[in-house]
Amino acid sequence: MHKIFDLKEMDIEQLRNLASDLGMKSFKKMEKDDLVYAILDEEARQNALNPVKQEKDGEAQAESPC
Fold first, then answer.
1. Phi/psi at 52 (nearest 5 deg)?
2. Dihedral of the CA atoms 33, 38, 40, 45 (nearest 10)?
3. Which of 36, 46, 49, 51 gives a 20 to 30 Å CA spacing to 62?
4. HSE of 27 in the Cβ direction (CA atoms, 13 Å)?
């Protein structure tokens, strides 16, 4: 998951590529700030759909589907 500061440092083309990789639609005409927040929203949505378990050292890892 990206941090807002990292996304804001990217240029618009990098953000569009990331949005495409995330499977987002209707992002090509978005302005940079709108795209940053849309990416954050999409990453949060995808993260919520994937169960996460806590490791002993506090690091989170996605559980493998069984």
1. -125, 140
2. 170
3. 36
4. 25
